[in-house]
Write a structure and sequence with these properties.
mainly alpha
């Protein structure tokens, strides 16, 4: 169960990082 929760947290962190990068690109090139 701990591994499952860890995977969810990792997915959320990766997703938020990609969202921030995408947001930065749209602000710069948008």
């Amino acid at each position: 169960m701990d591994i499952f929760i860890q995977q969810i947290i990792n997915g959320l962190v990766l997703g938020s990082m990609y969202a921030l990068i995408a947001l930065g690109y749209t602000m710069v090139y948008g």
